[in-house]
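Worked example 3 (structure in, sequence out).
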């Protein structure tokens, strides 16, 4: 019997420490759900499970890539379906335009719809998906497995020659300068005068004596013409001090309304205000006529044939419909709408200028100042026949492209399903290595808990054994 070394207590303490470690390990497994808490728990299993986890994470990325690829192809298919409808309608219009009973106006209406559909398709060709062009022929490689193997998607080129031939806009090569209007207006067909103040154009001969107008020749008591009256012939213009009190005419009374056409400031007339009206005190002989000469008493502005006016001149003076050609915003004219008439402002300063030799797109007939460079249109029966041929070729190619797109979508779908199955199998394999069996581990936990409690009690008893040595000293 010894007291310096309590071997039984040491053994019991070692057993208690082992039980405590096992209890802590079991507790960690139960709280984490993982069988491997430290690398030392299962070094080989940790390496395998880490490799499987990495592979599972890559598979998830592959599935995301496949989902994005499917979204891209679905977006492509949505556009192509509408393009198919548009081309089909264009072929229908091209066929209708070949009907010999149709007038030119009918063909123009068909061509208007035809060109609008063409513009829609042309705008669609530049669409993108998250910055990636959908229809420029670019081939995208999509990963199909965790090892990085790929297969191509995309590759649809709506700018290929077969589509370019069917979607060629009408182009012209300018033989002279031209301007594209930024506002509506009219091109004058002959020299025209624009009044700067109110004037009266006589419809019939009138006589005026300074205070009174007469519509017939006044006579004196002997039946002779009354010399106090001045005759103004029909077709001439007069201005009155009632309209321009600052001067310009000695006539102070407006003529009878029934015998004149009143022209307000800004109105147009095709009558020559320079002859016979200049020199009779009614209009200034030095006029504002576009050559830069400015007269303080100017009464009109000369607009030469071919001038552009931004306002509608109809009903202003005696300028009738035959003396103007209406043009709308965006139309192209070969008259300069930016010309400034002396102190007057330019009619369309924002018009776009095209220089001689430039090639521009336009459905207008620019043959008067440009050479036809070709284009697909159905404004004539011959043009409709040619258009139908190229549109049918484009439709055939589009159907091939859409069928290929459907095959790609099917492959993406099958690959995605395979990724799901592979993920499930790998997850099961990883689970067998790393996931704790809760039923078995709870049993182990209970066992170790009892051993810890028992070991604690026995260690207390073992520490009491040396006390028996005291009995020998009594």
């Amino acid at each position: 019997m010894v007291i310096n070394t309590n071997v039984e207590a040491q053994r019991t303490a070692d057993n208690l420490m082992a039980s405590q470690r096992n209890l802590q390990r079991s507790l960690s497994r139960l709280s984490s759900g993982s069988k491997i808490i430290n690398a030392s728990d299962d070094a080989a299993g940790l390496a395998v499970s880490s490799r499987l986890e990495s592979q599972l994470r890559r598979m998830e990325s592959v599935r995301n890539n496949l989902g994005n690829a499917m979204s891209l192809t679905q977006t492509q298919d949505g556009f192509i379906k509408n393009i198919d409808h548009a081309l089909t309608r264009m072929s229908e219009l091209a066929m209708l335009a070949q009907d010999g009973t149709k007038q030119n106006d009918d063909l123009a209406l068909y061509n208007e719809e035809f060109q609008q559909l063409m513009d829609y398709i042309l705008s669609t060709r530049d669409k993108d998906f998250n910055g990636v062009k959908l229809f420029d022929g670019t081939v995208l490689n999509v990963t199909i497995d965790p090892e990085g193997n790929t297969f191509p998607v995309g590759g649809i080129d709506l700018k290929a020659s077969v589509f370019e031939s069917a979607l060629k806009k009408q182009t012209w090569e300018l033989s002279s300068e031209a301007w594209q209007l930024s506002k509506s207006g009219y091109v004058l067909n002959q020299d025209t005068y624009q009044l700067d103040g109110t004037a009266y154009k006589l419809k019939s001969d009138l006589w005026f004596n300074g205070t009174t107008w007469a519509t017939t020749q006044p006579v004196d008591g002997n039946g002779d013409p009354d010399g106090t009256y001045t005759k103004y012939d029909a077709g001439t213009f007069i201005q009155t001090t009632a309209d321009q009190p600052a001067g310009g005419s000695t006539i102070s009374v407006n003529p009878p309304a029934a015998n004149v056409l009143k022209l307000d400031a800004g109105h147009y007339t095709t009558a020559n205000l320079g002859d016979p009206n200049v020199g009779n005190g009614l209009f200034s002989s030095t006029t504002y006529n576009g050559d830069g000469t400015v007269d303080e008493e100017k009464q009109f502005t000369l607009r030469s044939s071919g001038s552009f006016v931004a306002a509608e001149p109809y009903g202003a003076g005696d300028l009738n419909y035959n003396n103007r050609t209406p043009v709308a915003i965006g139309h192209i004219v070969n008259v300069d709408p930016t010309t400034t008439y002396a102190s007057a402002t330019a009619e369309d300063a924002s018009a776009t200028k095209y220089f001689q030799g430039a090639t521009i797109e336009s459905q207008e007939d620019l043959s008067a100042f440009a050479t036809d460079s070709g284009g697909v249109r159905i404004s004539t029966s011959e043009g409709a026949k040619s258009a139908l041929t190229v549109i049918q070729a484009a439709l055939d190619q589009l159907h091939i492209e859409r069928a290929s797109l459907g095959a790609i979508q099917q492959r993406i779908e099958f690959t995605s399903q395979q990724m799901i199955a592979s993920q499930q199998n790998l997850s099961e394999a990883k689970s067998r290595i790393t996931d704790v069996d809760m039923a078995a581990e709870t049993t182990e936990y209970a066992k170790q808990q009892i051993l810890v409690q028992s070991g604690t009690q026995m260690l207390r008893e073992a520490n009491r054994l040396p006390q028996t040595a005291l009995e020998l000293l009594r």
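Notes: The first strand starts at residue 128 and ends at 129. The radius of gyration is 49 Å.
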